[in-house]
Amino acid sequence: MKLAELFESGKFVVTAELGPPKGVDTNKMLQNADLLKGRVDAVNITDQQSSVMRLGSLASAHLVKQHGLEPIYQLTCRDRNRIALQSDLLSASVLGIENILCITGDYVSLGDHPEAKPVFDLDSVSLLRAAKMLKNGYDMAGNKLLGAPSFCLGAVVNPTAEPLELQVLKLEKKVVAGAEFIQTQAVYDPERFKEFVKQVKHLKIPIMVGIVPLRSASMARFMNKHVAGIHVPEELIERMEKTRDKTGTSIEICVELIKEMKPFCQGVHIMAIGWEKIVPKILDACGL
Fold first, then answer.
1. How many domains does the chain have?
2. If I label 112, which of 10, 28, 79, 150 is the partner at 20 to 30 A Cα–Cα?
3. Domain residue limits at 140
4. CA torsion, ordered 175, 181, 186, 188, to nearest 10 deg
5. Residue 182 bridge partners (DSSP)
6. Which pairing describes strands 181-186 and 13-18: parallel, antiparallel, or unpaired?
């Protein structure tokens, strides 16, 4: 089911994330899918996350759909030109994959093949525009398609990055290009998130707040230092540092954040990054 239909029904939408394996053994990925089945509305299938070579997101999304979960096919511009991107979108449609998240992608220097040649023929805005054209029955060159796909297109935004005005401008461009829902990067500062929502209220687009459960204080410090636009307040870092029950405290922090930001958004996107077993516990504690 398209996420747009869930938003239109007034449902508070819950999504999670699955990472394809580095290899062809998909058992672990599908076991993690089982942990999420019946608990989330859809699950993002990451596309060579952090520029690390893995099983493709299209094949993985197809397997997850066959397994009984609604996939959100993440498509990055880093590794393909416009011909391949459009072709993969058509392939996704033929496989029954309707929800697409269009993203630019991390630089290859961050991954395990730093010598790889990045493509970036398109960026996230132009990829959204291309996908919208496909929906309307034409490719980017203006050629008419033999059958048009039907997608629900999503985009990403970072509500706590500075300057805020630039993030609002980027989001405005993505909405004009065809975005129908937004998933944010990880947010740990509810007040800054509320201000962002206030600034983009005129766009009238569903926003899903992103949550990454903290495994440790060192993880929080790493994100503060190396992940642009993400800021974990010192108060949360100290809580993770002092606690003996890191899992329990991580769940408590996630629940507090979700409950405080829930009235200001239309859904939550939980990025557990290999810690999928914690997602049902977070949802239970939130009453979701």
1. 1
2. 28
3. 3-286
4. 90
5. 155, 207
6. unpaired
